[in-house]
């Protein structure tokens, strides 16, 4: 290329487009190596011809020479703040939206009684910045500062990958000032803190602080390494471009110009009711979002109406920050106990002074394990930050060390105030309570607590001897996603176990009214004694009215009776086999169809199934190899439990081909390719494999072991017993769906997401959460976001609801 100016222009445009595809659309069109190659070419050309470097050159993304200080920038249009509204939650999680209704009232009265449309969007927890573009090129970026004067952070903002250096698409205005928020994604924050820890440097308290610290670096090369992110939320002024009439149009226009918007997390509604429903939905989604938000912002949609409403002091009358309940709060650790889980896992738990956080009163928080507890150095008496995000178990985030009770304080409270002697300063600074250590014995059954090499989790070695493990196993068995026994919650089961009425699963099905009545009376009695503490048995106590013990017992028995014919997958999940979650249980049910098959399935065949690796297969086979477990299942069947059979939709003939299971035989190490050759040699028959003919020496060696020979005949018998592929197809199943992977995104017109998922699975398809090359179909509805874009970029087939139904052979 002998025209460097032309080539520089070409490379600049190309690289900016690639960066946009990668960072904003999340759909790269070229491999990273290609980007890097062109980037280096541009760097070299710019170094040779500095005068030709363009103002939107992507080479600025890596940062430049450190500044002595930031220049001040006066904001032409002041950067204002928002007034807040809160919606307190009651103990059932219901929101009280009085403050938002009051806002709506104020707005409507300001508009002479008219009902405005509202836009609701995330309130990003980052830093506000203002970006000025002239002729489409980013000219200046400034922080909010005091709202009138901010700091010039142009060099730093240019390193933010999803900030366009030149506006694209749409109608590019002569001048535009875009406002938005700079933040750090949760994942980038975690990675940054990990790096900081590894380098022995100070950790950032939260993504907001990390974003602020990174943006306000005099050395923009540091900012460049910090991976910041920008979301646009308004246009402060513009000249020579289109003039949107509403805030929503403004957002769409910003997107056209190349800015990122919070995909699927904003919307426009005709009134407050829609806004509030969206807010409640977002409060549930909040923990799973890739970035932190501390509320939603609700804005009057029409720009004319915004003008009509105007401002009051420093905040607009047409917008409000609708905050979420606090997720973090301070409280004091009263004790540290351990909890024993279903698998014996021993977890330290902080007992806390009750504190209201994230909409509920929290009294316990997990400390995860001994190592974590020591790393955070949580001790009795400490003031700690507790955090509760969504449905997640509350956790202790960190200790406020300044408030740790020290020896001297104890002496004072012990009444030793008059102590004449000055204690040496070391003793004064000694913590009152020692560093936390797990007990050596299980507090429930007294068995030893053991920890396997390299495992963070310690376990009680008592197994089924341990009452806590039995109780947890039963709680899991009865839980909603397992046998779903109505009326039998954690407290009821703990009581049943504590009183010796129930030991094993089958005992539940042998309970009768007198036994339950007895239990209830004992429990109520012990609750009148203050020492035993705890809330009363709440289930079965509808509307605060106490039920008679007989009625209560009848209800529980009805719940138990109703659970007797579970789906096979639920039953398998309920058994509490290690590593068998809902998904694995579903795969097992789909592959075998009946409990009888699952409980006899040979390990190498299990290991061939999708979603089941060797560890899980081993765990399943090991579970069913134990005579006690088989006896436990027989007892359940004898007590009237009868899991439903189901059509086989993951047929072994498809997943467990001979070369696959041969390559998964215990103690016979081989690849699938070699196993295929072996199968070929054996004349593609079990008789050939098992028979005494030559094949290869290693195989003969392996096959000679009696246990291995027995395993082979088990596999043979098992496979002969399984229905063939044709029979295996479910009635509704069809080859367009069976074995295919689907991804659902957006809102479908009539089907709920779990309905669509159930229909696909019933026809033998799989539903996955993310789009990849292996995805067969993406089913896209309203407000489908990045998954749809990714599908289009990868050339994956996209269906709407009607097309999905057609594929599933469902009319209408
Ligand atoms: S609009 C005149 N929209 O909240 C209205 N602000 O308290 C100006 N913020 O400094 C703000 N997300 O940092 C608006 N979607 C959003 C926002 C948002 C976060 C921040 C912004 C501003 C503060 C106002």
TrEMBL record:
The active site is at 123 (n6-amp-lysine intermediate). GO terms for cellular component: cytosol. NAD(+) binds at residues 32-36, 81-82, 121, 144, 181, 299, 323. It comes from the Bacteria. Its EC number is 6.5.1.2. Gene3D superfamilies: 5' to 3' exonuclease, C-terminal subdomain, 6.20.10.30, BRCT domain, DNA ligase/mRNA capping enzyme, Helix hairpin bin, Nucleic acid-binding proteins. Zn(2+) binds at residues 442, 445, 466. InterPro entries: BRCT_dom, BRCT_dom_sf, DisA/LigA_HHH, DNA_ligase, DNA_ligase_AS, DNA_ligase_CS, DNAligase_adenylation, DNAligase_N. Belongs to the NAD-dependent DNA ligase family. LigA subfamily. This is DNA ligase. It comes from Neisseria dentiae.
């Amino acid at each position: 290329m002998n025209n460097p100016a032309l080539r520089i222009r070409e490379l600049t445009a190309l690289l900016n487009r690639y960066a946009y595809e990668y960072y904003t659309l999340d759909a790269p069109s070229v491999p990273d190596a290609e980007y890097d190659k062109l980037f280096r070419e541009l760097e070299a050309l710019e170094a040779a011809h500095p005068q030709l470097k363009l103002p939107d050159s992507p080479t600025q993304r890596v940062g430049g020479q450190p500044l002595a200080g930031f220049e001040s920038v006066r904001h032409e249009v002041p950067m204002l703040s928002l007034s807040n509204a809160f919606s307190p939650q009651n103990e059932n999680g219901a929101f009280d939206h009085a403050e938002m209704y009051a806002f709506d009232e104020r707005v409507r009265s300001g508009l002479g009684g008219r009902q405005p449309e509202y836009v609701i969007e995330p309130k990003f927890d980052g830093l506000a910045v203002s970006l000025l573009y002239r002729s489409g090129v980013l000219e200046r970026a400034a922080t909010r500062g005091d709202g009138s004067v901010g700091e010039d952070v142009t060099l730093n903002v240019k390193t933010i990958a999803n900030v366009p250096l030149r506006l694209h698409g749409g109608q590019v205005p002569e001048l535009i000032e875009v406002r938005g928020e700079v933040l750090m994604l949760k994942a980038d924050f975690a990675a940054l803190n990990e790096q900081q820890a590894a380098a022995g440097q100070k950790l950032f308290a939260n993504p907001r602080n990390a974003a602020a610290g990174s943006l306000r670096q005099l050395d923009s090369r540091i900012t460049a390494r910090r991976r910041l992110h920008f979301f646009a939320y308004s246009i402060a002024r513009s000249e020579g471009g289109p003039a949107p009439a509403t805030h929503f149009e403004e957002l769409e226009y910003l997107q056209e110009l190349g800015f990122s918007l919070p995909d699927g997390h904003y919307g426009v509604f005709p009134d407050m009711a829609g806004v509030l429903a969206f807010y409640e939905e977002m409060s549930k989604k909040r923990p799973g979002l890739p970035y932190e938000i501390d509320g939603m912002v609700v804005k009057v949609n029409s720009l004319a109406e915004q003008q009509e409403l105007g401002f009051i002091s420093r905040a607009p009358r047409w917008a409000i920050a609708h905050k979420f309940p606090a997720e973090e709060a301070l409280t004091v650790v009263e004790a540290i106990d351990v909890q024993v889980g279903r698998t014996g896992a021993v977890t330290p738990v902080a007992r806390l002074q009750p504190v209201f956080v994230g909409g509920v009163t929290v009294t316990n928080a997990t400390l995860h394990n001994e190592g974590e507890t020591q790393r955070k150095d949580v001790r009795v008496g400490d003031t700690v930050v507790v955090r509760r995000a969504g449905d997640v178990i509350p956790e202790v985030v960190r200790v406020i060390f300044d408030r740790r009770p020290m020896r001297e304080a104890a002496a004072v409270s012990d009444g030793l105030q008059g102590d004449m002697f000055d204690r040496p300063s070391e003793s004064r600074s000694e913590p009152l309570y020692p560093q936390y250590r797990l007990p050596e014995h299980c507090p429930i059954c007294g068995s030893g607590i053991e920890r396997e090499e390299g495992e963070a989790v310690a376990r009680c070695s008592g197994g089924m001897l341990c009452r806590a493990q039995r109780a947890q196993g039963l709680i899991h068995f009865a839980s909603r996603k397992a046998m779903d026994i109505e009326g039998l919650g954690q407290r009821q089961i703990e009581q049943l176990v504590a009183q010796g009425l129930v030991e094993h699963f089958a005992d539940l099905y042998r309970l009768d009214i007198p036994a339950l009545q007895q239990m209830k009376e004992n429990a109520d009695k012990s609750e009148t004694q203050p020492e035993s503490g705890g809330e009363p048995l709440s289930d079965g106590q509808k509307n605060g009215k106490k039920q008679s013990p007989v009625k209560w017992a009848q209800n529980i028995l009805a719940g138990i009776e109703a659970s007797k014919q579970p789906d096979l997958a639920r039953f398998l999940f309920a058994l509490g086999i290690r590593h068998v979650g809902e998904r694995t249980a579903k795969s097992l049910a789909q592959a075998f169809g009946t409990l009888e098959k699952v409980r006899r399935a040979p390990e190498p065949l299990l290991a061939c199934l999708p979603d089941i690796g060797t560890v899980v297969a081993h765990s399943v086979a090991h579970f069913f190899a134990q005579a006690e477990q088989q006896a436990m299942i027989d007892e359940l069947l004898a007590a009237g439990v009868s899991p439903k059979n189901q059509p086989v939709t993951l047929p072994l003939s498809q997943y467990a081909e001979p070369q696959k299971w041969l390559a998964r035989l215990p103690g016979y190490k081989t690849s699938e390719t070699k196993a295929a050759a072996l199968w070929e040699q054996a004349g593609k028959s079990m008789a050939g494999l098992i028979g005494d003919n030559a094949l290869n020496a290693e195989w003969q060696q392996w096959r000679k072991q009696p246990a291995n020979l027995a395993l082979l005949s088990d596999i043979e018998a098992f496979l002969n017993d399984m229905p063939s592929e044709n029979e295996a197809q479910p009635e509704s199943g069809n080859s367009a769906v069976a074995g295919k992977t689907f991804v659902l995104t957006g809102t479908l017109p009539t089907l709920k997401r779990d309905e669509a998922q159930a229909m696909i699975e019933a026809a033998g398809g799989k539903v996955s959460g993310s789009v990849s090359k292996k995805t067969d179909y993406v089913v896209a509805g309203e407000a489908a976001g990045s998954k749809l874009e990714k599908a289009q970029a990868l050339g994956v087939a996209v269906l709407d609801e009607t097309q999905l139904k057609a594929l599933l052979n469902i009319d209408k």
